[in-house]
Design goal:
PurU_ACT, Alpha-Beta Plaits, globular, PurU, 13 strands, Rossmann fold, four-stranded antiparallel sheet, Formyl-FH4-Hydrolase_C, one-carbon metabolism, alpha/beta
């Protein structure tokens, strides 16, 4: 039995009485499974019996695919760990054939990749330093030296990793080594202008986010804003999506659009487009770091 039939909402549930001073810790549970009776009851009972307080609960009942997606944020005794909770919850997950995970307050470690365009990188660094990104930028990797000064001024390590047709395989292997060495949870392609190999895309499946202008596939190739100007577009947009082997076809996390008119030339369109790209990417990164994005085949469920 489910709590609601709408996309998302917050519910208040009765909680067990807690006495004495108990240090509290925050967690998030995300899960997806085939819709059936008893799922929400099993989850809330599990949390109630362990003295947890539910702070936020969102779910989406997909009637077309007959699946349930759920995100529950809760707090409770700090002696608990995600691994321990996963082990205790496994019997429930097996009963409902759930794909699930528990997370604590540990921030996701981010590796940002960039080429010559720095607007998305600059925006991510600004939000990270202000504490609103909800993740930690641990490393910036680039195939150009263009943004070294900006990155190092922010106190982040900058790695120059040039790529040529002859060195592409070695460069991608080095990237995977950096992911392991720095305990990276999320790779962000902030206008990184190299196409990743299929093998690298598969290695980073579900943990790499890309940003591109939403003119794709209508305005593929170089100079998209000039193409848009020539066609007299009325909306400028950007799309943040997970990286897959299908170029710019991965599950979409966020899209931003800005209305324009005939007075916008290519330069003005480019400036507006960069704003859209920075906004869409920062939201996608933040929601991923807050465990608000659940992959559902070729699409996503985003609990904002």
């Amino acid at each position: 039995m489910t709590l609601m039939a709408t996309d998302s909402s917050t519910s208040t549930l009765p909680q067990p009485e807690v006495t004495g001073e108990v240090q509290s810790k925050k967690f998030v549970l995300t899960l997806s499974c085939v819709e059936r009776a008893g799922i929400v009851h099993a989850v809330t009972t599990f949390l109630f019996e362990r003295g947890f307080n539910i702070e936020e609960h969102q779910q989406f009942d997909d009637g077309l695919r007959e699946t349930l997606h759920l995100r529950t944020a809760f707090s409770g005794p700090s002696v608990n760990t995600p691994d321990g909770l996963e082990e205790e919850f496994r019997s429930i997950a097996d009963r409902f054939d759930m794909k699930f995970s528990f997370h604590d307050e540990t921030k996701q470690r981010i590796l940002v990749m960039v080429s010559k365009f720095g607007h998305c990188l600059n925006d991510l660094l600004f939000r990270w330093r202000g504490g609103s990104l909800q993740g930690d930028i641990a490393l910036v990797v680039s195939n150009h030296e263009t943004h070294r000064a900006m990155v190092e001024a922010a106190g982040v390590h900058f790695m120059y990793l040039p790529v040529t047709p002859e060195t592409k395989s070695d460069a991608e292997q080095r990237l995977l080594e950096l992911v392991d060495e720095h305990n990276i949870d999320l790779v962000v392609l902030a206008r990184y202008m190299q196409v990743l190999s299929d093998d690298l895309c598969r290695s980073l499946e579900g943990r790499a986010i890309n940003i591109h202008h939403s003119f794709l596939p209508g305005f593929k190739g170089a100079r998209p804003y000039h193409q848009a100007y020539d066609r007299g577009v009325k909306l400028v947009g950007a799309t943040a999506h997970y990286v897959t082997a299908e170029l710019d076809e991965g599950p979409i996390i966020e899209q931003e659009v800005i209305r324009v008119d005939h007075s916008y030339g290519p330069t003005a369109l480019s400036i507006v487009g960069q704003d859209a790209e920075a906004l869409a990417l920062s939201r996608a990164v933040r929601w991923h770091c807050e465990h608000r994005v659940l992959l559902d085949r070729t699409s996503t469920v985003v609990f904002r």
